[in-house]
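Exam prep: given the inputs below (a chain plus zinc ion), describe the expected output before reading on.
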Amino acid sequence: MCISIHQIHQRVDAKSYYQRELAGAIGQHTGKGWYKTTALCPFHADKSPGTFYINVQTGKYKCFSCGTCGDFIDFHQHKYRSNLPQTLQSMWRAYA
Ligand SMILES: [Zn+2]
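Solution:
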């Protein structure tokens, strides 16, 4: 079965996705769906939390320390080092 990005966006709630994947709280709302988290950025050797932001409306993330950004599908791909079809399959199954 081929899963589309659109199907993932319909099935997976961005906030619960990040709550499950990030070791840290989704903290203060900073406007327009953006939250400042207390999570360490998984994409650089982060030692001080406070620069990793997520957007629960669009699913996007941004680290202001290393500059990495994207949506939660990019996040999953980078974190688990999988290609896009594998990523879509595993997210589809995890959030059934
Ligand atoms: Zn970072």
